[in-house]
Write a structure and sequence with these properties.
This protein is an alpha+beta fold. It has four helices and three strands; from the N terminus they run H-E-H-H-E-E-H. A three-stranded antiparallel β-sheet has the order 1-3-2. A hairpin with a 6-residue loop joins strand 2 and strand 3.
């Protein structure tokens, strides 16, 4: 049968998945945020795969910048997931087109 382990013995597990990555500093995130906001103003209605290379970052690296801009209500989004389009907060769909 199975042996019970005592509560004082922690379970030893191996870490699976991606290796640990270093976090970006607040200054780096602020810089990406400013660049992304400028890119959205220059090209309203663009999707993330279009905007991210113009900012000089990957789509994954932009997630924190987008989150900050949406919380600050500087940009708005239309659509879901890979079809999400980004607009400056004050622009209407007619102005962007």
């Amino acid at each position: 049968m199975h042996q019970r382990r005592e509560a004082s013995q922690p379970r030893q597990t191996k870490r699976k998945g991606k290796p640990a990555t270093q976090r970006r500093t607040a200054a780096e995130i602020d810089e990406l945020t400013e660049k992304f906001c400028s890119a959205v103003v220059k090209e309203p209605g663009a999707t993330m795969p279009i905007l991210a290379p113009r900012v000089g970052a990957t789509v994954d690296q932009q997630s924190m910048a987008v989150k900050r801009l949406r919380q600050a209500e500087q940009i708005r989004t239309v659509g879901h997931r890979h079809q999400t389009r980004y607009y400056p907060a004050g622009a209407t769909l007619d102005e962007a087109a």
